[in-house]
Amino acid sequence: MQTTIYLGSDAIQILQGDVRSGKLTISKHLTVEMGPGAMINGVITNEDMLLDAIDQADEAGDIDFHSTNLVINSSLIVNKNVAVPKMTPKELTELSHHEFEDATNFENLIIDYSSIRGKQGTNMLCCAVEREVLESYIRLFETAGIKLRRIDTALNATINYVEATSEYSGQTFAINMLDGNNLMYALFENGVYTFSSQARIMAERGTEAFTIEMASKLSSLVQFNKSQKSEYILDKAYYAGLTRDEIRRLQAYVDDTEVSVCAVENTGNIQENFSIDDDFLLRPFSLRKRTMSIC
Fold first, then answer.
1. Bridge partners of 260?
2. 279 exposed, middle or buried (CB, 10 Å; 0-12, 13-18, 19+)?
3. Do 31 and 11 contact (CB within 8 A), yes or no?
């Protein structure tokens, strides 16, 4: 049994289940609202609100925290997608550090990598984040009496999910995840990760301006795909964190384009015996072949 926690902008999400033979069976899931101000761009700004939410989750869901993984997301996390030859783990570790050695705060960075699929073979997803950001998470969970087994990034977890899911094989698509007003989006060409970025959505949800702004982000990604002269055309955009109504409005707005818009649906390698809300982000974060041990 493993437990995965995602600390969102205004809520924490917890998923508990087993992964066997490449299939995740979900036994529990829980969202605890925190309200604004506890997290800003992945940085803890109100520890008491987070500790209270963790206590509420434990009381409401009887969660087993003995094997707990944390998934984090922030624009402060720097990712690089690097094509690499066949190398030993030690050589890959050295190369991942070399990728960030010109950073002004290099000595304060925690750096790790994950081997992922590349267009010509194997690539390396390098990740760097400031030590203090990670240590703040570790201190938070130590105060809550929880020892973290792993800390992973939302991007790496998403790539792992796609690579472990046959339904995405051969597709060219974008996965978009909205947490509060923070949007993370990743482009996959022929099932292979190529690009990702983060954006802050300024418009208020439920308004036409929100739909227009989300459509604009998708249009920019479509134009980026075309500018790369790729033989694979972006024709589908999956969304997590949007309601079904928001997705329908977005689809109607982009209906004259070649891109279809839909929710991140359940896939054959995830078994759930109950309904999960549309804005629950953790399903694609919890089925992973490997994690970045950046704690």
1. 236
2. middle
3. yes
Q: Which two tokens stand for residue 97?
A: 């550090």
Q: Is 234 exposed, middle or buried (0-12, 13-18, 19+ CB in 10 A)?
A: buried
* Tens digit of each residue's pLDDT (9 = 90 or more) over 66-93: 889 999 999 999 999 999 999 999 999 9
Cα separation, 5 vs 289, in Å, equals 17
**Alpha-carbon gap, residue 80 to 98, rounded angstroms:** 12
User: What are the backbone angles phi and psi of residue 33, rounded to the nearest 5°?
Assistant: -70, 140
- In 64-99, which positions are buried (b, 16+ CB within 10 angstroms) versus exposed (e)? ebeebbbbbbbeebbbebbebeeeeeeebeeebbeb
Using alpha carbons, select from 72, 286, 262 the residue that is nearest to residue 160.
Answer: 286
DSSP classification of residue 289: S
Integer-rounded Cα radius of gyration of the chain: 19
Residues 6 or more apart in contact with residue 216 via CB below 8 angstroms: none
Q: Which helix (H) or strand (E) holds 96?
A: helix 89-98
What is the reported pLDDT for 215? Answer: 95
Q: Which of 14-23, 121-130, 196-205, 222-231 has the lowest mean pLDDT?
A: 14-23
Tokens encoding 280: 């629950």
DSSP 117-150: E-SSSEEEEEEEEEHHHHHHHHHHHHHTT--EEE
> Which of 120, 109, 151, 116 minimizes the C-alpha distance to 294?
151
Largest Cα–Cα distance in the chain? 53
Tell me how far apart the alpha carbons of residues 17 and 286 are, in angstroms, rounded to a whole number: 9
Per-residue pLDDT for 60 more than 50? yes
> Which residues, in sequence order, are bridge partners of residue 19?
24
